[in-house]
Amino acid sequence: MTIRHVVSWKLATTDDRERAEQAARIKSGLESLPAVIPELRSAQVGVTVAPGDDFDVVLISDFDSLDDIRIYQEHPAHLEVAGFIRSVVAGRAAVDFEV
Predict the structure, then answer these.
(1) Which pTM value belongs to this model?
(2) What's the sign of the alpha-carbon dihedral 79, 33, 27, 91?
(3) pLDDT tens digits, one per residue of 36-74
(4) How far apart are CA 66 and CA 70, in angstroms?
(5) CA torsion, points 59, 64, 68, 70, in degrees to nearest 10?
(6) Sign of the Cα pseudo-torsion (32, 37, 41, 47, in order)
(7) Residues with Cβ < 8 Å from 46, sequence gap 6 or more?
């Protein structure tokens, strides 16, 4: 069984340049995690190309189990990236489902 973990974020800033910089930093940080967190089987990060979308950044990641998601979420590397994300977002949505 594979658990797909999908998270979307809306950035708080209204400045286009700042939004692009923050989205790029989030993307880079999230994309670095599979190399250091073995439980994270794969991660794809996208930044919207359509201004005005409901969300600015999305993470689509795969895990073997819900326990592996918990391990990932508690990993120091994830906590560092998540800390930055929390500091710049206005909204978040997430869903976990079997594929």
Answers:
(1) 0.95
(2) negative
(3) 999 999 999 999 999 789 999 999 999 999 999 999 999
(4) 6
(5) 60
(6) negative
(7) 27, 57, 58, 60
